[in-house]
Amino acid sequence: MEDLKSLLIGIVGGLIVIAISKAYKSYKKKTIQEDINILEFEKKHLEEMKRSSVEMNRSSFRAVFALFFFIGLANLVPTFFALINIEPLTKSSLFVVLAIWAMFIALSLKFWNRYNNLKNYNQAMKQMEQKLEKLQERLQNN
After folding, report:
1. pLDDT at residue 20 is higher than 70
2. How many domains does the chain have?
3. Are 34 and 139 in contact (CB under 8 A)?
4. Helix axes 121-141, 2-51, angle to 10 degrees
5. What is the CA radius of gyration of the chain?
């Protein structure tokens, strides 16, 4: 009876490991495919910006308004937390404001890199192509 119990535990454990392995591989393929889609979108967007000054201006205004949004949100959070009287208890607005400023900086760097890529268009397109090739190789190998 003890041997049967051990065998059953081994089989169930093996099946669990196989299921987790398949789930991880599918998750990995999905994230690689999402990375490929984002990179292709960025490449397409850069091509559109290169061809059209209207698209470049539209993207610039979106960037500026997104940055203004984060500045306004960072300034509004402490006042809102004080209004609902949660600030004296937790000091949590400091962490929220730090997170918002971190997003502001990340977004600023993203747009800075996009315009730097636009300035060095040929080199940026080569780098994006190389990244796409590497990601597609990883997708095929998995």
Report:
1. yes
2. 1
3. no
4. 160
5. 24
